[in-house]
Design brief:
6-stranded antiparallel sheet, 198 residues, alpha+beta, elongated, minor pseudopilin epsh fold, 4-stranded antiparallel sheet, single chain
């Protein structure tokens, strides 16, 4: 056993790194097969970054400007006309809803002296509040241009308790411009009014 240990300690049996005159080992001294590949990838990345920093060419910029101009010419007028039409419909429906609320409030406020209540009478393109005790029709309001009621016989009556009844048993007054629709809804038992559409 002792002889084996002595043999391993002889200079000729030592590890190559520990033999006399051996050069010091360092990881950088070992060539790596990936060093060249890494440099190539680094060069590619640098070229891509420099291309990105270079920005757009004049031709590319002109192409983008032309595309934006075409989109603005075609899309913006259509979007604007659609927005105006929706706005008109919403304005008309809101006006009708506000008039229904006014008739309900008048019916409740004057319920002690006016047991007949108040109603909102509609034609094809206008509407007005009517005092049923005197059969007096107030000033009429026109719907926005191009909008009509889907029925010209709408009449909604509010009694002194605020409840609503309508001709034909409907619970909604519908407005249209031929393609779009708005609905002014009311709850018969309570007279609650809302509108929806688009």
């Amino acid at each position: 056993m002792l002889s084996r240990c002595c043999e391993s300690m002889r200079p000729e049996n030592a590890h190559p790194c520990f033999r006399k005159g051996a050069k010091a080992w360092h990881p950088a001294s070992v060539p790596s097969p990936l060093v060249g590949e890494g440099r190539a990838r680094g060069d590619d990345l640098k070229s891509e970054i420099s291309h990105f920093r270079a920005g757009m060419t004049l031709l590319e910029l002109l192409a983008v400007v032309v595309i934006l101009a075409v989109l603005a010419t075609v899309a913006v007028p259509r979007l604007a006309s659609s927005t105006v039409a929706v706005s008109k419909g919403e304005s008309g429906a809101t006006g009708v809803a506000d008039t229904l609320r006014l008739a309900r409030r008048l019916a409740v406020e004057h319920g002690a002296t006016n047991v007949g209540g108040y109603s909102v009478v509609c034609t094809a393109t206008s509407y007005a509040v009517k005092d049923l005790s005197t059969a007096t029709l107030g000033p009429s309001t026109d719907l926005p241009a191009g909008w009509t009621f889907e029925s010209s016989t709408y009449t909604v009556t509010f009694d002194p308790y605020g409840a609503a009844t309508a001709s034909g048993g409907v619970t909604s007054l519908s407005l249209t411009d031929g393609t779009r629709h708005w609905h002014v809804n009311f709850v018969p038992a309570t007279g609650y009014v809302s509108c929806a559409g688009g």
